[in-house]
Amino acid sequence: MIKFFRKIRQNLLTENKLSKYLIYAIGEIILVVIGILIAIQINNWNEQSKTQKSADIQLNQLSQNISDDLIQLDALNEVIKTNVIKSQMLSDQFQQIIPFDSLTTSYITASLFEQNFYANSTAYDKLNKTGEFSILPKDLQMEITAYYNLLYRIKEREEITNTFIKKEIEPYYFNHYSKYHRKGSNKHPLLEDYYQNDKREAIPLDISAIANDDKMATINFARLYQIKIQQEFYEEALQQGTKLKASIDEHLN
Questions:
Q1: Which run of H or of E encompasses 74?
Q2: How far is 129 from 126, CA to CA, in rounded Å?
Q3: Residues 107, 86: contact at Cβ < 8 Å?
Q4: Would you give the DSSP letter of residue 204?
Q5: pTM of the predicted model, to two decimals?
Q6: Distance set, CA 249 to CA 6, 20, 67, 111, 172 (Å)
Q7: Of 20, 26, 147, 238, which has the maximum CB count within 10 A?
Q8: Which of 25-34, 38-47, 94-103, 179-188 has the lowest mean pLDDT?
């Protein structure tokens, strides 16, 4: 092809048709430029296609990450529902709405246990690191960002609650309620299992002491308030995560 165009140019010069040669040369330059632009555009399309495919792979992984999150969030939410009930029962006992009973110490023990959610953000982090997040539809970007912002707030809330447990509940509990850590004295499932072979004599519930334990009553009030907020966060994350996963799956399909 190059030899063909070169031959035409030589013929035009030989025939002294300079004006035609110039027109031809300009046309040839234009064709070359157009060819280069087309090649660049094709290369851009190929790169965009590769980027989109890579983003879709990460979106598929993100959908799986969210599925893992939802399983964990659902389990945490079920536990915290039970803890809210126990803390509310203890609150009612302190307020003399219902009497103290054999489950009282198990309610107090339940306030010791921390909850931690560990989000799987590997795909989200990779989308941001590679810059592929920016090519996603804007509405999907907003949904994803809102979801991971919520997960960050959950970690903040858990940190507040768990710090309260470590600094306030644990020291007081171990100083005042560790005596009930024996078989027959505490019906919390974990303790019943641990002390199932305990040969020591059970310690009877000191109802008068517990009824007048204003600090534990106040600790339980704070604990109940905190876990109710935590429960709201878990339930909101379950809703957002379910909706986001559906949006991602719809985009991929």
A1: helix 18-94
A2: 5
A3: yes
A4: P
A5: 0.80
A6: 56, 60, 12, 39, 49
A7: 147
A8: 38-47
Both tokens of 207, joined, read 């109802």
Backbone angles phi, psi at 252, to 5 degrees: -75, -30
Residue 176 tokens, joined: 């005042």
Q: Are 140 and 247 in contact (CB under 8 A)?
A: yes
pLDDT tens digits along 92-113? 999 999 999 999 999 999 999 9
Which own/partner contact pairs does 99-105 have at CB distance under 8 Å and 24+ positions apart? 100/205, 100/207, 100/210, 100/211, 102/187, 102/205, 103/187, 104/205, 104/210, 105/177, 105/180, 105/185, 105/186, 105/187, 105/188, 105/205
The answer to whether residues 238 and 169 touch, using CB atoms and an 8 Å cutoff, is no
CA distance 167 to 163: 6
In the chain, what percentage of residues exceed pLDDT 90? 73
Place of tokens 């799987």: 120
- Residue found under tokens 């960050």: 152
Position 149: which residue type?
Answer: N
CA–CA dist 197, 92 (Å, integer): 32
CA distance 195 to 178: 13
